[in-house]
Design a protein that fits this description.
Elements (H helix, E strand, L loop, with lengths): L3 H9 L8 E6 L2 E12 L5 E3 L3 H10 L9 E9 L1 H10 L4 E6 L17 E5 L4 E8 L2 E7 L8 H8 L1 H9 L3 E5 L7 H12 L11 E5 L8 H11 L7 E6 L1 H10 L9 H12 L3 E4 L4 E6 L2 E6 L12 H14 L4 H18 L5 H12 L5
Parallel strand pairs: 1-5, 1-9, 2-7, 5-6, 9-10, 10-11, 11-12
Antiparallel strand pairs: 2-3, 2-4, 7-8, 12-13, 13-14
Length: 371
């Protein structure tokens, strides 16, 4: 009997995947990928600080004194949860509109690398992230005051109310991500729900409204609860799906007083799903993922990379693969596999996969020949 991954690879070959209509917002960052230098060997060569613990010990050793740590820029790339998710979904020949902080009055050149099937609207200047990468994680140092200008009013000014209604009326997926770093995101949601959403047609097959909080630890508990409580108000028009990594899921559950100690992933997922009263909740630890869609819990393990080339954006690629699976009408467990295949390819190749590459990756994963 064929495995689920092998069956999925065959299934994907039969599905019409092009021309999905997608709208994504609202952040935008220029990401500078950086390695921290351990020992400088000569002008062109060095050894890298490989783990976050080694980096922390270097800093701790200098407490009360001072130290110098050389940071070596590896590349400058499109950053932000929204643009990375957008770039991943664009590989599948979808029709995408991106609304976000891409630069004003001119869009920053780094975003010109977006594929031709992505139409851009900029509402504010982009943020900047120094992403110091290690083998066991990453330290992301963000400069994001410009995201204060991501507001409903600036969105309407950049796009136009009628155009916004038209975009959302014809959408298959609407994704609003990186709530944590956009101070006015909840207000933006409320005004979209008040001014735009009631003017949309209600459809027999609802489009997906995907939300990613993006590490809300720094936000006040009342703000987090208020934002999450607003999500169910979109239910009449959208199938609302919340995506969380493992840390975010536990943090949010504690904020909502759903847990007071660590619980299993299934219990965690169930409590969040029941509290939020939305279509679905998906949680993605590094080596596995789970979701509840329509009251059914699904769980799958992933293809963990031992030496990833790039980890910044892996979660956004998972989100892209997962929601694209839902757009294709896959079963929830198959959508989980597609999400982990997308992120698994991304961390190994430092780019998002095309549709055919996803199919090949699933086969290699099933054959256990991934590096």
């Amino acid at each position: 009997m064929q495995s689920v991954k092998r069956q999925l690879s065959l299934k994907l070959k039969t599905l019409p995947y092009q021309n999905k209509s997608i709208v994504i917002g609202f952040d935008g960052f220029i990401d500078e990928i950086i390695h921290a230098v351990d020992k400088r060997l000569d002008s062109e060569h060095f050894t890298r600080i490989e783990t976050m613990l080694q980096f922390a010990k270097r800093i701790e050793k200098a407490s009360g004194l001072s130290t110098n740590i050389e940071l070596f820029p590896v590349q400058e790339k499109i950053g932000g949860n929204g643009p990375i998710m957008c770039n991943a979904l664009s590989q599948h020949e979808s029709k995408i509109t991106y609304l976000g902080a891409l630069g004003v009055p001119q869009i920053h050149p780094v975003f010109s690398k977006m594929p031709a099937n992505v139409k851009l609207y900029s509402v504010a200047n982009s943020g900047h992230t120094d992403a110091i990468e290690f083998l066991d994680g990453k330290l992301m140092l963000g400069k994001m005051s410009s995201l204060n200008d991501v507001t409903y009013e600036n969105l309407v000014q950049a796009v136009g109310e009628e155009q916004l209604i038209d975009l959302l009326n014809n959408v298959d997926l609407f994704a609003a991500v990186n709530w944590s770093m956009i101070p006015h995101m909840t207000d933006l949601w409320i005004k979209l729900r008040t001014n735009i959403v009631p003017k949309l047609n209600k459809r027999d097959i609802k489009p997906i409204f995907f939300v990613d909080l993006a590490d809300p630890e720094k936000r006040e508990h009342d703000e987090i609860k208020s934002a999450l409580d607003h999500l169910k108000s979109f239910n009449p028009w959208f199938n609302v799906v919340l995506g969380l990594n493992k840390k975010e899921a536990y943090d949010v559950a504690r904020v909502l007083h759903l847990i007071d100690h660590d619980v299993t992933l299934e219990d965690l997922n169930t409590r969040l799903y029941q509290y939020l009263d939305i279509y679905g909740v998906v949680i993605h630890p590094v080596d596995q993922s789970c979701c509840i869609i329509g009251d059914r819990f699904e769980h799958e393990f992933g293809p963990l990379a031992q030496k990833p080339k790039l980890t910044t954006g892996a979660g956004d690629n998972f989100n892209a693969g997962f929601v694209f699976g839902l757009l294709l009408g896959l079963k929830p467990n198959e959508a989980l596999l597609l999400g982990m295949a997308t992120s698994g390819f991304y961390v190994r190749q430092a780019r998002s996969p095309k549709y055919s590459e996803l199919i090949d990756f699933l086969i290699q994963w099933d054959d256990q020949i991934l590096d």
